[in-house]
Design a protein that fits this description.
With about 240 residues, the chain is mainly beta. The protein is built from 3 helices and 14 strands. Strand 13 and strand 14 form a beta hairpin. A 5-stranded mixed sheet has the order 4-11-12-5-8, with no helix packed on it. Strands 3-13-14 form a 3-stranded antiparallel sheet, with no helix packed on it.
Length: about 240
């Protein structure tokens, strides 16, 4: 199974929130710096207007939107540390908002140990067995007279399609886990042989069964991360997800 951490390859968001517009062209470091003259930025009110929780909420949104990480810029550490600390309380604080962010620009909390595949420009793979390859590759797939494809080299992996709650057993407590694959270029179905048990009266025997496997040109398996997550939306679209 190929395990790859999906990279955040979006451009670093440079900008500042003013009215209903997310202005581009000003670095995150400049945005969060205490000595920035906001009044010189187009459409931006004077610095003294942004105080207290309003200012904190805007700093949080800008820092969370950095694809390199919310603490990638040193000036972002204080507002982000404050955010993560208060969200960790037994009775968490209210998530801060930026009143000048405009419609479609916001952040929200959720519980999910995986990322949306759309952030990588890929699709969420459906639940079931899948593999990476090209159905026309004779080294990996065999074609029968009925034009059925069989997986003869390599193996498939099971995709839960995201988080899954595994119930407690005698040997272990219940836990969240699962697998999630991002895919591109659906090829079709191939059949994979596996060993199974067949019942025959009062006895059973081992035989070979076949299961359908979805084949894609590219399959990227995500790593399971912290379930504490924050989605950042810019212009109504999911920009990035932060796990903490």
């Amino acid at each position: 199974m190929k395990i790859t951490q999906i990279p955040k390859n979006q451009l670093i968001m440079a900008g500042i929130i003013a009215g209903s517009v997310l202005f581009m062209g000003v670095g995150l470091k400049a945005v969060c710096a205490e000595d920035v003259d906001y009044s010189k930025l187009p459409g931006m009110p004077k610095l003294e207007i942004m105080t207290g929780n309003d200012r904190w909420g805007c700093e949080v949104l800008l820092c969370l939107a950095n694809p390199n990480g919310p603490r990638a810029v040193s000036e972002c550490k204080p507002p982000i540390d404050k955010l993560f600390d208060c969200l960790s309380w037994r009775h968490p604080c209210k998530f801060p908002s930026c009143p000048m962010a405009g419609e479609g620009n916001y952040a929200k909390q959720l519980s999910d140990g995986f990322d949306p595949c759309s952030l990588q420009g890929m699709e969420d793979a459906p639940q079931g067995f899948l593999t990476e390859g090209n159905l026309n590759d004779a080294k990996k797939f065999k074609t029968t007279r009925g034009n059925r494809k069989f997986l003869t080299h390599g193996h498939s992996s099971y995709n839960w399609g995201g988080e899954h709650w595994f119930k407690a057993t005698e040997d272990s407590p219940g836990y969240w886990g699962g697998t999630k694959a991002c895919v591109r270029g659906y090829q079709g179905i191939a059949y994979e042989p596996y060993t199974c048990q067949e019942d025959s009266g009062d006895s059973s025997y081992t035989t070979t069964c076949y299961r359908p496997v979805k084949v894609y040109e590219e399959v990227v398996w995500q790593k399971y991360q912290s379930r504490r997550a924050i989605d950042v939306f810019i212009n109504g679209k999911n920009w990035t997800r932060v796990h903490w």
